[in-house]
């Protein structure tokens, strides 16, 4: 076979290679934006051995599910699938038009934040062992009314890396490894000038799965698509 034909075939095979992400757990949460607000069902697809990416699933109606996918500091996507597909299919293609770069331009913020560990404590009527992600300066935190993110890890899930959905929270963990392994059975946000918790997640079930998300390596991901970025970050600051 002529050399130029071999080179062409090798080039074609390389250009059509897929980038794949595997998931081995589906985490089922009961979600409440704030006390007194309506309850929702929320799901996260995770890889217990790699927390650099995750998929956030929301049931829109009985027929469709919205998926927010994030590979920290790499790519993000926002798209919909039919509800039945999450149970019936094992492989899902993420189309280029729904993907965007997710480069984290705010890694420098990690020097301003830290995780703190509280053993055997009672926090807002919730007992247990907690981690909190917050600003290092109490004065700045108070003056700017910055959010604190609280996590309680479920005992017996230490073989699962922590699910950290915000880039700053993940970047700080990656740098310092100052939060223990485990699946959060409770997480919520706290503002110092508000008496109630915000964005409360309570774990309902842990389901072993085997799912793969993939996209074509030729996708153009050089810049963030504003509409995807806005949709992705409109809910969770941490």
Describe what this molecule looks like in 3D.
The protein has two domains: 3-31 and 38-103 and 206-233, no CATH class; 107-204, no CATH class. The protein contains five helices and twelve strands. The relative contact order is 0.22. The longest helix is centred in the N-terminal third of the chain and has 13 residues, at 3-15. It has helices spanning 3-15, 85-88, 138-144, 167-176, 226-233; strands at residues 18-34, 39-47, 50-59, 64-71, 75-82, 91-93, 99-101, 113-123, 126-135, 147-153, 184-191, 198-216. It is an alpha+beta fold. Strands 1, 2, 3, 4, 5, 6, 7, 8, 9, 10, 11 and 12 form a twelve-stranded mixed β-sheet that branches.
What's the layout of helices and strands?
Layout: H1 3-15, E1 18-34, E2 39-47, E3 50-59, E4 64-71, E5 75-82, H2 85-88, E6 91-93, E7 99-101, E8 113-123, E9 126-135, H3 138-144, E10 147-153, H4 167-176, E11 184-191, E12 198-216, H5 226-233
Parallel strand pairs: 6-12
Antiparallel strand pairs: 1-2, 1-12, 2-3, 3-4, 4-5, 5-7, 8-9, 9-10, 10-11, 11-12
Provide a concise account of the structure shown:
With about 240 residues, the protein is α+β, with helices and mostly antiparallel strands. The protein contains five helices and twelve strands. Strand 2 (about 40-45) and strand 3 (about 50-60) form a beta hairpin.
- Tell me how many strands there are: 12
Largest sheet: 12 strands, mixed
Cα-to-Cα separation, first versus last residue: 56 Å
What overall geometry do the principal axes of the alpha carbons give?
Answer: globular
What is the N-to-C succession of helices and strands? HEEEEEHEEEEHEHEEH
The assembly state of the depicted protein chains is single chain
Work out the count of structural domains.
2
Query: In percent, how helical is the residue content?
Result: 10-25%
> What is the mean pLDDT?
86
| Helix vs. strand class | alpha+beta
User: What's the tally of helices?
Assistant: 5
Low-confidence stretches: 4-9
Strand content: over 45%
- Radius of gyration, in Å, reads 20 Å
């Amino acid at each position: 076979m002529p050399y130029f034909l071999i080179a062409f075939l090798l080039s074609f095979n390389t250009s059509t290679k897929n980038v794949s992400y595997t998931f081995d757990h589906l985490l089922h949460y009961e979600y409440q934006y704030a006390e007194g607000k309506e309850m929702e069902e929320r799901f996260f697809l995770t890889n217990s051995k790699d927390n650099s990416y995750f998929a956030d699933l929301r049931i829109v109606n009985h027929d469709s599910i919205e998926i927010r996918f994030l590979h920290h500091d790499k790519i993000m996507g926002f798209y919909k699938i039919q509800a039945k597909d999450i149970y019936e299919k094992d492989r899902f293609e993420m189309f280029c038009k729904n993907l965007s770069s997710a480069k984290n331009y705010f890694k420098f913020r990690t020097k301003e934040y830290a995780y703190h560990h509280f053993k055997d404590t009672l926090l807002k009527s919730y007992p247990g062992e907690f981690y909190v992600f917050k600003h290092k300066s109490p004065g700045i935190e108070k003056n700017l009314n910055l959010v604190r993110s609280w996590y309680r890890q479920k005992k017996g899930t230490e073989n699962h890396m922590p699910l950290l959905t915000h880039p700053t929270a993940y970047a700080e963990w990656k740098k310092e490894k100052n939060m223990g392994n485990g699946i959060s059975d409770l997480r919520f946000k706290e503002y110092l000038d508000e008496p109630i918790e915000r964005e409360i997640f309570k774990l309902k079930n842990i389901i072993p799965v085997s799912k793969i998300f993939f996209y074509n390596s030729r996708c153009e991901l050089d810049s963030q698509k504003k509409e995807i970025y806005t949709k992705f970050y409109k809910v969770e600051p941490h």
